[in-house]
Amino acid sequence: MKNRLKKILLSLTIISVMLLVVIAVxxxxxYIGKKIDSFNNVSVYYNGNPKNVNGRNLTKDGYNLGLxxxxxxFVKRYYYEYLNHKMPNSYxxxxxxxxxxxxxxxxxxSRNLIQFNNPSFSKPKVNDILVLDKxxxxxxxxxxxxxxxxxxxxxxxxxxxxxxxxxxxxxxFIDGKWKVDNERILCWLRME
Length: 192
Hints:
Blueprint: H1 2-26, E1 35-39, E2 42-45, E3 56-58, E4 64-67, H2 71-81, E5 106-108, E6 113-117, E7 129-132, E8 142-149, E9 153-157, E10 166-174, E11 177-180, E12 185-190
Antiparallel strand pairs: 1-2, 3-4, 5-6, 6-12, 7-8, 7-12, 8-9, 9-10, 10-11
C-alpha cells in the first residue's frame, strides 16, 4: 500500500510539472530570451527547454560567456559584468567548474576562484558560484549565483530552469563545517 501511494504521488508530481511546462510554453508571457529576473542589474533570461541552445555569447573583446540562456552563460556574464572577472578557462559544462584535485579553500586555477568543497570550513557568501554535479536528467551539471545567505539557508539565482529563477537550499553547520544540504552540490567558488 505504501509503495503504491508513493507511485501515485510521484505520478501526480510528474504530471503537475509537465502541466506547468506546457502552460509556460504556450503562455505568451514566456518566450526564449525574455528577461525573467535580475540580480545586481545582471539579467536572467528564459530558455524554454533547458536543452535549448541559441548560439554563443561572446563579449566585445572576444571572451566566451557561453551558450545563450544556459546556466553557465548567466554565471559567467554575472562575473564578467558585475565582478569584472574573466575565467582563464572560458569553456566547459557547469559540472566542469568543480576541480576534484583542488582542496577546500584553495585556488581553482581554471576558474581563478577559491573553491570551497561541500562541506567546507567556509560558509557560502553572496556572489559565490554554486556548482551542482550531473544527474540522471542533466548530464552537464548546473551552476547558479548565491543571492542571499541566512543562518540556516541560502538562496540562489539561476538561468535555464523551467520556471523559477530563485531556489533555496538548507544550510547546516555540523562538525565545524558548513554543508549545503543537497547531494548534487559539489562546491562553491569565490573571488579572492
